[in-house]
């Protein structure tokens, strides 16, 4: 009984979901640099305090404590802020891409005999099972400004629904809204 | 590690530091086996994700899970175990099969491998996602000139060859371009110079290669070999250039039918000159129906010359090849031919490296969701007139990105905002499977060559005209890797 050969699964986790887009964009993590700067200042201040007052045990201890806090902040910056919120520099394109993927998933659902979902979260299972991404979650259903994408059913037999993002001003009904409509229903057009 | 750092992370290298890989025997470090088995032995039945492809050969079973992606070859007994385990408890199955119980430890280790791959586990557990390749530029190609002293029948650049040198990019322009490109480059990119015949501008060639090497690139020159002089060979060796010489057969008859009368002798003289000066020399043949039967003789010839590498690539329906004078060989046939050759002649293996077989073997070894072959993401071509294209095979006006001579040219804006690049990036098998949806090998095939798809169908995102052959070739490669895993050398970047 033997597993004779197999492909190798690389073991490092990466946020592959948006890869196609991040290649065309860049992301900013604005708090990371602030966190790093704060940590370094704490470490430097603490060490200078400890070294400069080496005859006063209490101040040396306080200095070392501050430096230790700095190292703690540094570790937090690396572990939390690196994985924290991402701000896309090209959020419009991220939004459009995500909406098109969602539209594709709805189309597949309709083709499989399903109905238009009442809520986009119903699509999570669909998206996952359609091979695109098994670990899909509600982050995927957000636009490039990290706000939820909304699905609206339309009373139009030719265009069944539309996906909408509020755009950069975060308010629906304004000029900067991003709208992607369902593909035209050919039966309705006929 | 930031998001962009993740994106530039090389899945292959990351793997090697975390994973003890072996095709036979133990597949995971002990600590990982423990972790995975702890999950698997919970009091819930296990579920086997249905494979997308099951193929039997000589009592062995190939299982392919296209979505993960993952493949494995198991013996019939192990396959029976997997099927029995689906939806049941391990203990239950082992109790029914005392012979299997005796192999419990080994079974657990092998199941842990499948658990790690995400094909086997508890129903509610999500499949772990394999990481992706990075997206920084791994390969910069430069068409130094569009002039050439030969007119090879299936040259990829044949429609664009000219005698006019007035618009060719200067050394300074190439240097400036390389400097601006630096923020987008991978850690160890390759710089490939082609043409036309780049040795028609030997001084310029050496100058741009020197600049690229100073920027940390590995420089490779692709030449027809007829213009190699002692002076060039000496300076190329000093600079550390790799020189790939196109030679389409081991005899004048085979080669000259493609590259013109008398070219064989001049090319071989050039190769000898390079070797004499210790230049890293590669000979490369484009395989078609006419020269495939002579592949073994080609390797023998390369060995007798003393070259460092012998390379073969399939004929693509691009450039001059679209005229249809030469017949392409289906990929599966090409791979099977090479496999038989390498098995019969292990003395050829030291010469293997960047050939079609090795590149595909390296790709198939891994379970990686590569978004594309690299075009639009990891490659860029600077043409002789300063125009940028996504890659060598998309050297067509439809894929024009920009020209470095345009007023206000900004590589950052171009690389990030180019509609051509973004279109290629969007239409990946990963995000828009389209016609590839459901294909069990799509993450290894990646939809074929976009340039060739465009040349044949007029749409880069269309299904490859060689779809069936690619699919058969990749499945054949899985079987080959199961038989001879040692044939999968790590592929070099430049191809």
What does this protein structure show overall?
The complex is a heterodimer of chains A (190) and B (495). Chain A is α+β, with helices and mostly antiparallel strands and 190 residues long. Chain A has two domains: 30-84; 90-189, no CATH class. Chain A has helices at 19-22, 30-52, 57-79, 91-111, 123-129, 186-189, and strands spanning 3-6, 27-28, 87-88, 150-153, 161-165, 178-181. In chain A, strand 4 (150-153) and strand 5 form a beta hairpin. Mean pLDDT of chain A is 71; it is low at 11-28, 82-87 and 130-136. Chain B has 495 residues and is an alpha/beta fold. Among the domains of chain B are: 3-52 and 78-121, no CATH class; 137-318 and 327-349 and 378-399, Aldolase class I (TIM Barrel). In chain B, 39% of the residues lie in helices and 15% in strands. Chain B has helices at 3-7, 11-18, 30-40, 76-85, 90-96, 98-102, 104-117, 171-181, 202-214, 230-239, 252-259, 263-276, 295-305, 331-344, 356-365, 411-417, 419-426, 442-445, 450-457, 467-483, and strands spanning 47-48, 53-57, 60-65, 70-75, 120-121, 137-143, 185-194, 218-223, 242-246, 280-287, 309-314, 379-382, 387-389, 402-403.
């Amino acid at each position: 009984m033997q597993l004779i050969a197999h492909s190798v699964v690389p073991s490092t986790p990466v946020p592959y979901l948006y890869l196609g887009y991040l290649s065309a964009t860049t992301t900013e993590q604005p708090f990371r640099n602030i966190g790093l700067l704060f940590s370094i200042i704490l470490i430097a201040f603490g060490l200078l305090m400890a070294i400069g007052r080496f005859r006063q045990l209490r101040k040396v201890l306080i200095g070392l404590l501050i430096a230790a806090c700095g190292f703690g902040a540094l570790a937090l910056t690396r572990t939390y802020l690196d994985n924290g919120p991402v701000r896309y520099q090209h959020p419009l394109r991220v939004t459009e891409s995500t909406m098109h993927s969602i539209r594709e998933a709805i189309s597949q659902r309709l083709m499989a005999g399903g109905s238009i979902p009442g809520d986009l979260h119903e699509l999570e299972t669909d998206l996952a099972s359609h091979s695109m991404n098994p670990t899909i979650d509600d982050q995927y259903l957000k636009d490039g400004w990290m706000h939820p994408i909304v699905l609206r059913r339309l009373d139009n037999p030719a265009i069944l629904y539309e996906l909408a993002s509020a755009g950069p001003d975060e308010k629906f009904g304004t000029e900067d809204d991003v709208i992607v409509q369902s593909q035209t229903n050919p039966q309705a057009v006929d | 590690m930031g998001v962009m750092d993740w994106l530039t992370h090389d899945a292959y290298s990351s793997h090697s530091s975390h994973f003890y890989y072996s095709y036979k025997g133990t597949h995971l470090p002990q600590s990982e086996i423990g972790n995975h088995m702890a999950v698997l032995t919970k009091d819930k039945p296990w579920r086997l994700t249905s494979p997308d492809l099951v193929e039997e050969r000589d009592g062995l079973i190939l299982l392919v899970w296209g979505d993960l992606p993952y493949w494995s070859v198991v013996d019939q007994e192990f396959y029976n175990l997997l099927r029995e385990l689906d939806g049941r408890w391990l203990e239950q199955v082992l109790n029914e099969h005392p012979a299997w119980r005796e192999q419990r430890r080994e079974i657990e280790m092998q199941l842990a491998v499948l658990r790690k791959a995400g094909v086997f586990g508890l129903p509610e557990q999500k499949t772990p996602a394999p990481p992706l390749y990075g997206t920084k530029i791994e390969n910069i190609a430069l068409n130094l000139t569009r002039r050439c002293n030969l007119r090879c029948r299936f040259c990829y650049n044949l429609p664009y060859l000219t005698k006019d040198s007035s618009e060719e990019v200067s050394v300074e322009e190439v240097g400036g371009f390389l400097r601006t490109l630096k923020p987008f480059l991978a850690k160890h990119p390759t710089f490939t110079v082609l043409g036309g015949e780049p040795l028609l501008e030997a001084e310029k060639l050496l100058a741009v290669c020197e600049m690229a090497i100073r920027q940390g690139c590995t420089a490779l020159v692709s030449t027809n070999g007829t213009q190699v002089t002692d002076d060039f060979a000496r300076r190329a060796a000093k600079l550390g250039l790799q020189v790939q010489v196109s030679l389409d057969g081991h005899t004048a008859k085979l080669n000259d039918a493609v590259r013109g009368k008398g070219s064989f002798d001049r090319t071989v003289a050039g190769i000898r000159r390079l070797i004499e000066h210790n230049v890293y020399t590669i000979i490369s043949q484009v395989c078609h129906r006419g020269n495939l039967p002579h592949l073994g003789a080609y390797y023998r010839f390369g060995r007798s010359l003393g070259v460092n590498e012998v390379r073969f690539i399939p004929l693509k329906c691009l450039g001059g090849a679209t005229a249809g004078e030469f017949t392409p060989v289906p990929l599966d046939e090409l791979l099977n031919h090479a496999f038989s050759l390498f098995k019969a002649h292990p003395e050829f293996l030291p010469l293997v490296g960047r050939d079609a077989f090795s590149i595909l073997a390296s790709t198939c070894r891994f379970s990686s969701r590569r978004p594309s072959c690299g075009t639009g993401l990891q490659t860029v071509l600077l043409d002789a007139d300063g125009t940028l294209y996504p890659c060598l095979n998309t050297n067509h006006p439809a894929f024009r990105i920009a020209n470095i001579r345009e007023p206000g040219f900004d590589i950052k804006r171009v690389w990030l905002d180019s509609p051509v690049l973004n279109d290629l990036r969007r239409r990946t098998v990963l995000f828009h499977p389209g016609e590839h949806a459901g294909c069990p090998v799509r993450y290894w095939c990646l939809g074929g060559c976009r340039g060739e798809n465009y040349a044949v169908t007029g749409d880069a995102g269309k299904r490859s005209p060689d779809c069936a052959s690619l699919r058969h070739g990749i499945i054949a490669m899985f079987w080959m890797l199961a038989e001879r895993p040692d044939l999968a050398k790590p592929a070099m970047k430049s191809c």
